[in-house]
Amino acid sequence: MRTFAFGDRPDLHGQAEDIFSAGWPEFIFHDPVAERQMGRVRQWFGGLNLLLVDGEDQIVAGGWGVPMRWDGSLADLPGGYDESLVRAVALREADGQADTLVIAAAQVRGDLQGRGLAAEMLRILASAGERAGLERVIAPVRPALKARYPLTPMGQFMSWTRTDGAPLDPWLRTHQRMGARVLCAAERSMTMEGSVGDWQKWAGFALPASGSYVVPGALAPVVIDYERDEGVLVEPNVWVRHR
Ligand SMILES: CC(C)(COP(=O)(O)OP(=O)(O)OC[C@H]1O[C@@H](n2cnc3c(N)ncnc32)[C@H](O)[C@@H]1OP(=O)(O)O)[C@@H](O)C(=O)NCCC(=O)NCCS
Fold it and tell me: Does the C-beta of 105 come closer than 6 Å to ligand 1?
């Protein structure tokens, strides 16, 4: 298998679009803070946006991250995914020196999941970070199973274990198996916004009055406000630090 920077393989972009847009709820693509950063993230941090490709030019996995400055303390952690992108872009605009890789996302092709490829992708990203002088690696992890427990606080969910002591959540297990340590819940990692009509479309059912709703795929309840014609989902993640 070979690794390429996403930007170096425009011939694979169609394939990447098919693979990486699959399996996500539509609302995940409506995070205005992240959207505002994404152009500059792609332009400036392309060396940290990687594809893992097999011998037949088929994408196996992908992942990307951003370079940030972090002093190693809990107090200096960003709020989560959104704030990591904002801080990375601001640091670069100020010509600052980054020291930490924030792994923003990783995805394995659907038919290849469960074979340890995610760990391989995370290792490749961490190595790219190291080559770029980023000595620390952290990630706001979006636990795969949390959507089944949207009413449970993340602080509680992330402490749930199986009988063998490993995290209940499979994606947290992957990180932990690699030696990562859970730092804390990132209570406000991503914020997705839309009109009430947008949310009815994304949820696939009626949201007839203001209030909180459990929407499939969402890690927390969606708050609908008819007066503002607005729905907001603030998703928590889990901060982990890799060795
Ligand atoms: C999360 C993800 C990257 C994990 O990749 P992976 O290569 O399958 O990870 P692993 O092979 O290490 O599997 C981790 C665990 O999940 C389990 N698992 C993986 N895919 C699974 C599936 N489709 N159904 C059920 N369990 C699954 C594995 O059995 C393993 O469990 P174990 O600890 O008991 O062995 C991958 O599932 C994925 O791309 N998901 C969609 C995108 C996503 O959610 N990314 C994370 C947020 S950015």
Answer: yes
- Tell me the DSSP string of 142-168: --TTGGG-TTS-HHHHTT-B-TTSSBS
pLDDT tens, per residue, the chain with 243 residues: 999 999 999 999 999 999 999 889 999 999 999 999 999 999 999 999 999 999 999 999 999 999 999 999 999 999 999 999 999 999 999 999 999 999 999 999 999 999 999 999 999 999 999 999 999 999 999 999 999 999 999 999 999 999 999 999 999 999 999 999 999 999 999 999 999 999 999 999 999 999 999 999 999 999 999 999 999 999 999 999 998
**Is any atom of ligand 1 closer than 6 Å to the C-beta of 144?**
yes
Cβ 118 under 6 angstroms from ligand 1? yes
User: Quick one: how far is CA 75 from the chain centroid?
Assistant: 21
Q: In the beta sheet, which residues pair with residue 191? A: 234
Which atom of ligand 1 lies closest to the CA of 118?
Answer: 7
Give, using CA atoms, the residue closest to atom 39 of ligand 1: 107
Which amino acid, one-letter code, is at 27? F
81 lines ligand 1 (CB under 6 A): no
Are the CB atoms for 123 and 42 separated by under 8 Å? no
CATH of 2-188, one of 3.40.630.30, 3.30.1950.10, 1.10.260.40, 3.40.190.150: 3.40.630.30
Residue 107: phi and psi, rounded to 5, are -145, 140
The residue ranges of every structural domain in the chain are 2-188
